[in-house]
Amino acid sequence: MSNMQKNLFSLLIALLVLSCKTTEKQMAYKTDSLEIGTLTEHTYLHTSFLETESFGRVACNGMIVVNNGEAIVFDTPSNNIVSKELMDWLDTQNVIVKAVVATHFHDDCVGGLKTFHQRGVPSYAHQETIRLLAGNETEIPQNGFTDITELRVGNKKVILEFMGAGHTNDNIIGFFPSEKIMFGGCLIKSIGAGKGNLEDANVMEWPKTVSKIKSKYPNTSIIVPGHGNYGDGELLDYTITLFKG
User: Fold this and answer.
1) Which residue intervals define the domain Metallo-beta-lactamase in the entry (predicted)?
2) Exposure string for 97-119, b = 16+ CB within 10 A, e = fewer
3) Which residue in 48, 90, 139, 220 has a CA-CA distance of 20 to 30 Å to 100?
4) Domain assignment present for 90
C-alpha cells in the first residue's frame, strides 16, 4: 500500500469514527418505547411506536421546538404512558411545555393527549380535527383554527398552517421560521416510503397540497415526516411524485 493510499485509508477511518460520535451525540434519550434525537439547537425529533393491524409496529415521529426554557410539542407520542415519559424527560431539561399541537385526528397524533391536558398544557389543532374527534371516546384538542395561526415559544414564533387535504382532510404542517424547519407530519412522506394508510386520504388533492407547501416554503432546511427519516425539500418532491403517479 502506497503512502497516499495509507493516508486516504486513515482519513476514511477518521471520518467514520467522527460520524459515529456525531450520531451518538444527536440521540438525547432512548428507551424501547421512546427516542428523542437532536435536530438543531432548538429542535428535537421524538419517535414512539404504534401497534397497528395493517402495518404492525409503526414508528411515529413528532417534533419539539425549544426556546428560552419553553417548548411546543408537535403530535403526542402514541399513548398516554409514553407521553408521560416525554414530559418527564422535558422536566429534566428544565423546559416548560407551553403547547401541544395535533397535526391530524389519527392516534399517532392524539393518542397521548390526555397526559398533556392533565398537566395543564393547552392543545391546538385544525377546527376540522376537533370536529372529527367530537363524539369519540378520546381527548379533543382545546383550541382550533381554520387557515393559519401563530404560537410563541420563548421569543420566537411557530406557524401552524392548513394548506389543503392529503393524508386526511384536516392535516396541518408546523413551521419554525428561525431555523427553517418544518414538521410535515403524515402529509409528507420519507424518501422510499409507500403511500401508507389511505383510509381517510384525499389522493387527488394530496400532490396539489404539497405543491402549495413547496411554493410557500421553498427554502426549508429540514422537513420531518410523520414516519421514516427526515430530510430536506426532496421529501416534498418525492411526495408529489408518489401521488401524481
Assistant:
1) 59-227
2) bbbbbbbbbbebbbbbbbbbbee
3) 220
4) yes
Is position 235 within any domain?
yes
Can you give the residue range of the structural domain that contains 59? 28-244
**pLDDT beyond 70 at 233:** yes
Condensed to tens digits (0 to 9), the pLDDT of residues 157-212 reads 999 999 999 999 999 999 999 999 999 999 999 999 999 999 999 999 999 999 99
User: Taking all residues of the chain, what is their mean pLDDT, rounded to a whole number?
Assistant: 91
- Among the listed residues 42, 126, 156, 167, the single catalytic one is 167
In the set 46, 61, 108, 171, the catalytic residue is: 108
Asked if residue 7 belongs to a domain, the reply is no
Residue among 107, 197, 208, 237 flagged as catalytic: 197
Instruction: Give the three cell numbers for residue 9.
Output: 485509508
Q: What integer pLDDT is reported at residue 52 of this predicted model?
A: 83
CATH of the domain at 89: 3.60.15.10
Q: Judge whether 227 counts as a catalytic residue.
A: yes
How many domains does the chain fold into? 1
Q: Is 42 a catalytic residue?
A: no
Distance CA 85, CA 18 (A): 30
Residues 6+ apart with CB under 8 A from 220: 175, 180, 181, 182, 232, 233
**Is residue 4 in some structural domain?**
no
pTM of the model: 0.89
Distance CA 115, CA 47 (A): 17
